[in-house]
Amino acid sequence: MTMVLxxxxxxxxxxxxxxxxxxxxxxxxxxxxxxxGPNGSGxxxxxxxxxxxxxxxxxxxxLDGRRIDRLPAHRVVELGxxxxxxxxxxxxxxxxxxxxxxxxLYGSRQDRDVARAFDExxxxxxxxxxxxHAETLAANLTVQDRKRLELARVIATGSRILLLDEVFAGLxxxxxREAMGLFTRLQKEIGFGALVVEHVxxxxxxxxxxxxxxxxxxxxxxxxxxxxxxxxxxxxxxxGREAARAAT
Amino acid sequence: MAEPxxxxxxLIFGIVRGILLGCVFALIAHGLNLIWGIAKVVNVAHGEFIxxxxxxxxxxxxxxxxxxxxxxxxDAALGLAVxxxxxxxxxxxxxxxxEAITLQSEMVTLVATFGLSLFIAxxxxxxxxxxxxxxxxxxxxxxxxxxxxxxxxxxxxxxSVAIIALTQIFLNRTYLxxxxxxxxxxxxxxxxxxxxxxxxxxxxxxxxxxxxMAGGAFLTVLFxxxxxxxxxxxxxxxxxxxxxxxxxxxxxxxxxxGITLGIIIDVGQIFLGPSIAYAVAFLTLIPVLLFRxxxxxx
Amino acid sequence: MKLPAIxxxxxxxxxxxxxxxxxxxxxxxxxxxxxxILIGLLVFAALAYSMNFITGLTGYVSFGQVVFMGTGAYxxxxxxxxxxxxxxxxxxxxxxxxxxxxLGLGAVTLRFRGxxxxxxxxxxxxxxxxxxxxxxxxxxxxxxxxxxxxxxxxWFYTIWVILAIEIGLTYWVTHGRIGYGLRAIKGxxxxxxxxxxxxxxxxxFVFCFSGLFTGAAGAVNAWTLSGxxxxxxxxxLFSLQMLAMVxxxxxxxxxxxxxxxxxxxxxxxxxxxxxVGAEFxxxxxxxxxxxxxxxxxxxxxxxxxxxxxxxxxx
Lengths: 248, 298, 314
Hints:
The complex is a heterotrimer of chains A (248), B (298) and C (314).
Chain A: E1 4-14, E2 17-28, E3 32-36, H1 43-51, E4 58-63, E5 66-67, H2 73-79, E6 81-83, H3 96-105, H4 114-128, H5 143-156, E7 161-165, H6 173-190, E8 193-197, H7 201-207, E9 210-215, E10 218-223, H8 225-228, H9 232-239, H10 241-247
Parallel strand pairs in A: 3-8, 3-9, 6-7, 7-8
Antiparallel strand pairs in A: 1-2, 1-4, 4-5, 9-10
Helix pairs in contact in A: 3-4, 3-5, 4-5, 9-10
Chain B: H1 4-39, H2 46-64, H3 68-95, H4 103-128, E1 141-144, E2 147-150, H5 151-173, H6 175-185, H7 187-192, H8 197-222, H9 232-246, H10 251-272, H11 274-283, H12 285-291
Antiparallel strand pairs in B: 1-2
Helix pairs in contact in B: 1-5, 1-8, 1-9, 1-10, 2-3, 2-4, 2-8, 2-9, 3-4, 3-8, 5-6, 5-8, 6-8, 9-10, 10-11
Chain C: H1 11-26, H2 32-58, H3 66-82, H4 87-109, H5 114-133, E1 144-145, H6 152-175, H7 177-187, H8 189-193, H9 199-225, E2 227-228, H10 230-233, H11 236-249, H12 256-272, H13 278-293, H14 297-305
Antiparallel strand pairs in C: 1-2
């Protein structure tokens, strides 16, 4: 059965600040949904709410019809949704393999067999191309490899829906091409669904099946990538009113 | 219990004494809070520096005949020097070049200052002999109706609040003070402002120690025979609780927390006995941490 | 629930096991004075391993650890004194009370991170001793004084068994799935949660072990003193010594707490005969230097600087 994540009318206030003012969307297993919007539009907050890191002020998050918005983060992962961190948060004192092994041992598999978990971890490391760094302490990885490790860990959790927070940011054009190729390969191999928050337009437009634009905590557009970016509301949100008028 | 009016009188006396005590508690906690808020170091050896401040007042009285109010500024100056030494000899190695203080580094300083506290307390015990000593200084007292309030207590309470206010003005109004506050918020930004973070952190630490040792001198007025090498073991936890009650980094919070704790201890002592009073004072920490982790002040 | 399989035992385990077995076999022939020193060392080691469960494995610094030692001692004193239980039964009760108290305190205090946890636990023994002082059933300020015989061999084998179980459990925890979860929590608790680790439960789990063994060691310590005294039973110095042993030996390691116990206990007994409190001058400086210079402790430093030892030491 295909897993479906749906977010309905989610609001999130921090004190007097309304970070999300009623956002709805859905992501099905195997589909890639891009989530774009200007800085401070609430993208990361939305990912945190879905992942159970933050509790929504109102609205619901469901997975196959089951409410998950009141569950703690670790339960959400057990059910099959895992999030990367915008700034990678590896366990610095552990090796790359141990970092991934932890994700296999816990995550949604909850596999208690350490030896088997590490076989699985090795497989994931090969998939993302980190196998030569398996024994390296995460503290000694480059920024790019730390990003790969973030990706490796969420894959290792066995999650069917991944929440990816700017995994393509800060890469050179060559690295970006390589990373996008890697993403496509992984997606083909594993078939996960993903909600991809991204500033790098090229990546979002190429990889996503559908794109959602949010601004100031509200959804302002949704649709196939190439169509969405031509909508005046989207151009306005990104570039201001003048640019939107000039473009139309 | 006796007749109602006597109970009320006791209660009022407890509250008044509690406020006086609380102001001095607030000062020693303020010293901890400065170091905690600025250098992001929780100094477990805090109590030992209070103890050194108290012994400073004791020896200045013994050899020069100074009263504790006069000794306090001398203690403060000593504290400033000790604080600079503490920073460069102890913290600098761990904090140097760090843009933010990680949990890891927090644990390192926690354990290291604990080692220091063992060292100081026990060295003091060997050097000063482990007996209780006191300062024979009595400033007299004033009568307010049926209450007798010791003047010394009033002096040290007022001076404590004044010192807290002065450090506040220093931190908010002077160039160096603003630099220190900037350091406590965001270390890289301090550098962008053209301020040397090492200098700022060292001065902040020195300031905290100065305040702490002056507080130790003031304590000797309230507890005239309470000076002994292991006194820090009582005052350090009290300071920790006060800082958490008031909210770390919030300087006026220390005053509110200090007075709260002073009243709990003094009023509690009258009605519940000293043991339970202290137990209640310590355990106040738990509900505050659970429900108001940012301290009782918003 | 399927228990994780025990992986192959390394040289460190064999070394510790050899030490314990030699001690157990030789004990009846060891003269009284060295035997009492050995008993003290084992009590300290048991305390060090119990601190290692919480502080070594999760990075949560428990300044109030002595509260479990004190309650274990009082539980022991109470059942032995009032109900005339056999001291070993009292040790079991002490262990159970320690674990239960850890469960209760941990459920509240383990929500606080870093310094806040340290301070929240710090006030526990202070409050406990204040409460005991006014509890007549526990002897108030007087404590519980019992007239038990001098039986060093019983003390020795009791603490020996406690320590052996504790080291075995440490090995099991660090080498299994739980160990990886704990290392993740120690590394970055928030990140650990987003990988599916139930941090609250794991922390509470090891904290209960910690309380259990601290309580048991506290009971044995009370047995060797044939009594419990409020200010000694809850002396923060014990917490601090436990922390010192773990930090000096190497947090979270298998051999570290034992090494730490030797380093802390030996000067403790030696200087005790010179001048009271002097041993802490030495220990204090030692802790400060080790925390600042080699925060990973003796075992960690050896592993880092001597690659050949990496396969052997753990």
